[in-house]
Amino acid sequence: MAGGIFDHEGEDRPLTEINVTPLVDVMLVLLVIFIILAPAMANSLRVTLPRASGENVVAAAPLTVVLRADGSTAIGEETLSADALSVRLREAAQRDPETPLRIDGDGATPYQQVAQLLSLAQKSGIRKIAFTTQAP
Length: 136
Hints:
Blueprint: E1 4-6, E2 12-14, H1 21-44, E3 63-67, E4 73-75, E5 78-80, H2 82-95, E6 100-105, H3 111-124, E7 128-131
Parallel strand pairs: 3-6, 6-7
Antiparallel strand pairs: 1-2, 3-4, 4-5
């Protein structure tokens, strides 16, 4: 009988296993089609964004603190003690709570000094902190 398998006794029994090779072939072809078409479809999507009127939001200028390798701390060219730095950070946070703190640290600055500055900024009420780095 066609489509059957003969066992050792010569009886014809139906095929009970599913042949998945055609299914895998179809899936691989579909995968290749989607890989090729996906970038083209992503670039062809055009969206008309809604327009709204309102005033422009100006982000606050960051307060830049420089941590030097010798352990000193400065804002701009002015070297500050820990107490003076705390006062300046608190004043900046009171003026605008969204003022970002930008930390320019020397590569040889001890981590303890960075941790102390982060703690001082948190106690002062500054919530946005960024580290300045150089591209490799």
